[in-house]
């Protein structure tokens, strides 16, 4: 698009204002099962065949598939005048249900929960609080009662986190050498996905996953066995119940859910439970020192506004919280992925 000299192009504005359409194309293709059908087929398929497999309209499917091609989620070739579609490396790796690195459940969670909360971002900014009441009609005075508002929603949330740690778990756990900590407790460890990555990376360790009773029950029903090898599960609320004994406590994607005062309370409890020489590993998406980047983390912080009580923080802000709780020797490392790791010792 050409614009008069001195006037900014509208291209960037168009890109931003239509970004939700791109998200919905991705979400719809995941929800319908487009990538799975193509992965299971013996070869590329035409839009009519995909539509027939999935019970959709031919017109709608053709439009969706062609847009996925433009987004590099699919590839297309023409044979005898007919367009045939197949997955790209990106979709084969991250969007096909059977891939060990699949992010499909996270896409579905973003589509069915996060997206609906973001429709109320302006109101969240006005009020300074999450939007579960407007998005879903459920009060959020007890945050995780709202987040786990149904058994299906709890399972999808846990599956989404399983997806995250299947790709990024080993990166954050390898940021520091954790082998000196044979007994580890993953607080708010959900399905046990990070615990599984931990025992794979450090075969000599044992991990206790500590989470709410409903989460532990879902983990037993759908994920790891409750007493499988070096991983065990224990029910409890880390804000008020006694914490399991451990050499290292892991807080992965936990502190960003809460305001500073709740974080300080939790870290003080961990410091009290921690052995001398023990430590805490904080795993979060880290803001730049001035708080104005990276963009992904800024967007995550806005997501904390619409979905939780917390925010993303800078390394300095985490250092201050840890120091106030009594921890010292605070080290921070960024990883090649979304999350950084902060290790502090008692």
From TrEMBL:
<dbReference type="InterPro" id="IPR016461">
    <property type="entry name" value="COMT-like"/>
</dbReference>
<dbReference type="InterPro" id="IPR029063">
    <property type="entry name" value="SAM-dependent_MTases_sf"/>
</dbReference>
<keyword id="KW-0471">Melatonin biosynthesis</keyword>
<protein>
    <recommendedName>
        <fullName>Acetylserotonin O-methyltransferase</fullName>
        <ecNumber>2.1.1.4</ecNumber>
    </recommendedName>
</protein>
<dbReference type="InterPro" id="IPR001077">
    <property type="entry name" value="COMT_C"/>
</dbReference>
<comment type="subunit">
    <text>Homodimer.</text>
</comment>
<keyword id="KW-0443">Lipid metabolism</keyword>
<dbReference type="Pfam" id="PF00891">
    <property type="entry name" value="Methyltransf_2"/>
</dbReference>
<dbReference type="GO" id="GO:0017096">
    <property type="term" value="F:acetylserotonin O-methyltransferase activity"/>
</dbReference>
<keyword id="KW-0489">Methyltransferase</keyword>
<dbReference type="GO" id="GO:0030187">
    <property type="term" value="P:melatonin biosynthetic process"/>
</dbReference>
<dbReference type="GO" id="GO:0046983">
    <property type="term" value="F:protein dimerization activity"/>
</dbReference>
<dbReference type="GO" id="GO:0006629">
    <property type="term" value="P:lipid metabolic process"/>
</dbReference>
<feature type="domain" description="O-methyltransferase C-terminal">
    <location>
        <begin position="118"/>
        <end position="327"/>
    </location>
</feature>
<comment type="pathway">
    <text>Aromatic compound metabolism; melatonin biosynthesis; melatonin from serotonin: step 1/2.</text>
</comment>
<feature type="domain" description="O-methyltransferase dimerisation">
    <location>
        <begin position="15"/>
        <end position="96"/>
    </location>
</feature>
<comment type="function">
    <text>Catalyzes the transfer of a methyl group onto N-acetylserotonin, producing melatonin (N-acetyl-5-methoxytryptamine).</text>
</comment>
<dbReference type="GO" id="GO:0032259">
    <property type="term" value="P:methylation"/>
</dbReference>
<dbReference type="InterPro" id="IPR036388">
    <property type="entry name" value="WH-like_DNA-bd_sf"/>
</dbReference>
<dbReference type="Pfam" id="PF08100">
    <property type="entry name" value="Dimerisation"/>
</dbReference>
<feature type="active site" description="Proton acceptor">
    <location>
        <position position="256"/>
    </location>
</feature>
<keyword id="KW-0949">S-adenosyl-L-methionine</keyword>
<keyword id="KW-0808">Transferase</keyword>
<dbReference type="InterPro" id="IPR012967">
    <property type="entry name" value="COMT_dimerisation"/>
</dbReference>
<dbReference type="InterPro" id="IPR036390">
    <property type="entry name" value="WH_DNA-bd_sf"/>
</dbReference>
């Amino acid at each position: 698009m050409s614009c008069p000299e001195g006037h900014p192009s509208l291209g960037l504005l168009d890109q931003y204002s239509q970004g939700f359409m791109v998200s919905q194309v991705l979400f719809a293709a995941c929800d319908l099962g487009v990538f799975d059908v193509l992965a299971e087929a013996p070869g590329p398929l035409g839009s009519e065949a995909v539509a027939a497999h999935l019970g959709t309209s031919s017109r709608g499917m053709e439009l969706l598939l062609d847009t996925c091609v433009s987004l590099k989620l699919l590839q297309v070739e023409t044979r005898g005048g007919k367009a045939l579609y197949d997955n790209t490396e990106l979709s084969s790796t991250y969007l096909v249900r059977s891939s060990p690195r699949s992010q499909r459940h996270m896409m579905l969670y973003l589509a069915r929960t996060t997206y609906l909360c973001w429709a109320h971002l302006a109101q969240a900014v006005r009020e300074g609080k999450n939007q579960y009441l407007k998005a879903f009609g459920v009060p959020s005075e007890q945050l995780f009662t709202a987040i786990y508002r149904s058994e299906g929603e709890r399972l999808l949330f846990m599956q989404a986190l399983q997806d995250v740690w299947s790709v990024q778990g080993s990166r954050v756990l390898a940021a520091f050498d954790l082998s000196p900590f044979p007994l580890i407790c993953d607080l708010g460890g959900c399905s046990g996905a990070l615990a599984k990555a931990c025992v794979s990376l450090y075969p000599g360790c044992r991990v206790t996953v500590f989470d709410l009773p409903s989460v532990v029950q879902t983990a037993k029903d759908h994920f790891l066995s409750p007493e499988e090898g070096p991983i065990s599960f224990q029910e409890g609320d880390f804000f008020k119940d006694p914490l399991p004994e451990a050499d290292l406590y892991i807080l992965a994607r936990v502190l960003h859910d809460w305001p500073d005062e709740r974080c300080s309370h939790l870290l003080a409890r961990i410091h009290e439970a921690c052995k001398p020489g023990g430590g805490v590993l904080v795993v979060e998406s880290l803001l730049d020192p001035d708080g104005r980047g990276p963009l992904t983390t800024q967007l995550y912080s806005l997501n904390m506004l619409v979905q939780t009580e917390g925010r993303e923080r800078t390394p300095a802000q985490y250092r201050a919280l840890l120091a106030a709780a009594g921890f010292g020797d605070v080290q921070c490392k960024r990883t090649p992925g979304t999350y950084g790791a902060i290790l502090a010792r008692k």
